[in-house]
Amino acid sequence: MEELFTLTPACDTVLTYMKTLVNNTYQVLRCLRGAGVVSGQNLSRRLGISRVGVWKHVQELRRQGYCIESSPTGYRLLSAPDLLLPGEFPGWEDRIYHFHEVDSTMRIARELARGDAEEGTLVLAESQSQGRGRLDRVWLSPPGGIYLTLVTRPKISPALATRVSLVASVSVATALRENLGVPACVKWPNDVLVGGRKVCGILAEMEAEPDAVRYINIGIGVNVNTPADPQLPAAVSLVELVGRPVDRREVTMRIVTDLLRRLRELTSASCLNIWRELSGTIGREVCVRQDNETICGVAVDIQESGALVVQAADGRRTAVVAGDCTYEGT
Description:
Largest sheet: 7 strands, mixed
CATH topology of the largest domain: BirA Bifunctional Protein, domain 2
Shape: elongated
Order of helices and strands: HHHEEEHEEHEEEEHHHEEEEE
Strand content: 25-35%
Strand order of the largest sheet: 3-4-5-9-8-7-6
């Protein structure tokens, strides 16, 4: 699904039908990948659909940007578009909602989560017109970046929800380090930095009962192949860091699969230990601005809840649950 839409209860049947069509289309794509020329008859037999049906699915793939050559002997996949289409994530097609442009992936994911979308449902956009970060700040979302929201349903107490953002930042930093060799670090509460410049922002949104989480949607925006903006010197993109275009599909899949794995270990001490190892905040002189006060001192640790522990010059320690954290070089 690639067009803007607003979900309503009446959409359920339509969405199920559309998902069936999508699955058939991507089954054709799977058969064509790395297979050379595949005859229409072969595709028809393998997928249990008519040759006319095969042709319609090929036309749909072409509409999405796949270059597929037709000949008397069959079809051959020549190239795929540089888009985060469901077909670029084999095995995940039926849980991905892709948009060329959307106001906000968080809005779409919120409606999906309220409609009982399963954990692992992923909303992807090539660009956003109303992307937002923490404190309702604008997150510029031009083509070339990764803009996603992942629906999660962790079985945790709402008191541990802060850990989700920490774990998400670890997944992003780990992906950039291991896939690209980029020395990414995490900044409390939910940013990923390289050399003090922001490469990724994370936003988590929760709906919960007093004793249980209903869902936590995790929004992630990564500057990937976006050009440098002189007006945003505190930001950096991966293409600047590695000196070549980066495969967005590979980075997206690595982040999402790593994050889902880490969320299963959310209540263990190890998830916080890894954050500490990757932290660019611990040991720094920081100032955390809140609505009514600013707390300054040395960031010495994070608590089990994910709160940042700041030690003032007089030795007094304060656990900060939320706020805007700044330190030299950021």
